TrEMBL record:
This is Chalcone isomerase family protein. Residues 1-20 form the signal peptide. Pfam families: Chalcone_3 (PF16036). The keyword Protein biosynthesis does not apply. Keywords: Isomerase, Signal. One of its GO terms (molecular function) is isomerase activity. It comes from Roseateles agri. SUPFAM superfamilies: Chalcone isomerase. Residues 23-190 form the Chalcone isomerase domain. The keyword Transferase does not apply.
Length: 195
């Protein structure tokens, strides 16, 4: 009888602990721990990108240790991951243009010049994709010694982008002085609860 009670208690507790390993944002599940190039990363924060009242995508930022300022995230040379999931169909050309605009608005002229190789590559990737459909995702990992590795729906897109300036410039789209969405910036920095 005691064994049956223990088994029932474990069955009740197991689903609760499994849920604690995932953060859900607008129906998208982000694991609280992820791995990039053999290094364990934790979910720094996750949130929703809104345009007017419309939900456009969710984003999750993974770092080695929790960071709650843009300077700390951008200054860290350890592995990182930015993971985005589309909540509606997004034209690839528009994504490429928005990334370029976001990088330009949040970078100095010198930073942008050092990032141009990566900016052109990521714009070409999304132009070739044509459309990121609702539910599809992409991630950009920073792997020290390798560079930025872009995956779309889990498939690596071309060779790594080696310039660290590109990855920092890319993150500034969400964490810079003129972020794509101020609420999302706070959410990625873990300063605001996710919805």
């Amino acid at each position: 009888m005691r064994g049956l009670v223990i088994a029932l208690l474990l069955a009740l507790v197991a689903p609760l602990s499994a849920k604690a390993d995932v953060v859900e944002v607008a129906g998208v599940k982000y694991d609280t721990v992820n791995e990039v190039a053999g290094q364990k990363l934790q979910l720094n924060g996750a949130g929703i990108r809104y345009k007017a009242i419309f939900k456009i995508y969710t984003a999750g930022l993974y770092t080695v240790t929790k960071q709650n300022t843009p300077e700390a995230v951008l200054g860290s040379t350890t592995a990182k991951r930015l993971h985005i999931v589309a909540l509606r169909d997004l034209p690839g050309n528009d994504l490429g243009k928005l990334f370029t605009k976001g990088i330009e608005e949040n970078s100095t002229r010198e930073e942008f010049a050092k990032s141009i190789n990566g900016v052109l590559r990521i714009s070409e990737m999304f132009a070739a994709k044509k459309e990121l459909m609702k539910g599809e995702d992409f991630a950009v990992d920073w792997i020290p010694g390798t560079g930025a590795v872009v995956t779309v729906n889990g498939k690596v897109q071309g060779a790594p982008i080696p310039e660290p300036e590109f990855y920092a410039s890319l993150l500034r789209i969400w964490l810079g002085k003129a972020p794509a969405d101020y609420q999302l910036k706070d959410a990625l920095l873990g300063l605001k609860p996710t919805r």
